[in-house]
Amino acid sequence: MIKRLQTDKRRFPRVKKELPLKIAANGYDFTTATQNVSCVGTYCRVDKYLPPFTKVLIKLSLPITNKDNNNCCVECKGVIVRTEDEDTGGFNLAIFFNEIAPAQKRKISQYINQFLPQKSYRP
After folding, report:
1. How do residues 70-81 score in pLDDT, each as one tens digit?
2. Are residues 105 and 85 in contact, defined by beta-carbon separation less than 8 angstroms?
């Protein structure tokens, strides 16, 4: 019997990169970093418990320079789809970007595509 290689079945590629991330939810502001990111969501760690279905505001900093030589900032709205207790303290959050402009999605895709082997995704 031949085993097939398992491939990621996600529609949108994701990369394991630490990028500066700001989250605003329920009157709290969190500064953290992504553990992985795609153009439709991210996974990160915060110190305070935020339950699933919490709506959040996202500010993601991408190391793509713009015409002013500043890092590119992506802003969108998201919802927490999973909260996991971290053994070492804190919580891991899976956040889905439920309100993201096409131009913002393209910025993330542009960043991610530079790390993909050959086939790239363009929204």
Report:
1. 678 999 999 999
2. no
Written as six digits, the tokens of 6 are 């398992």
Give the residue carrying structure tokens 């079945």.
Answer: 9
Q: 76 forms bridges with which residues in the sheet?
A: 58
Q: Which tokens is 120 given?
A: 């790239």
Give the residue numbers spanning the domain of 32. 14-113
CATH number of the domain where residue 99 is located: 2.40.10.220
Structure-token pair, residue 22 = 């700001």
| Domain assignment of residue 6, yes or no | no
Q: What's the total number of domains in the chain?
A: 1
Q: Is residue 4 part of a domain?
A: no
Burial of residue 90 (CB within 10 Å: 0-12, 13-18, 19+) is middle
Residue 118 in any domain: the answer is no
Amino acid at 67: K
pTM, two decimals, is 0.83
DSSP letter at 102?
H
pLDDT of residue 119: 55
Q: Is residue 123 part of a domain?
A: no
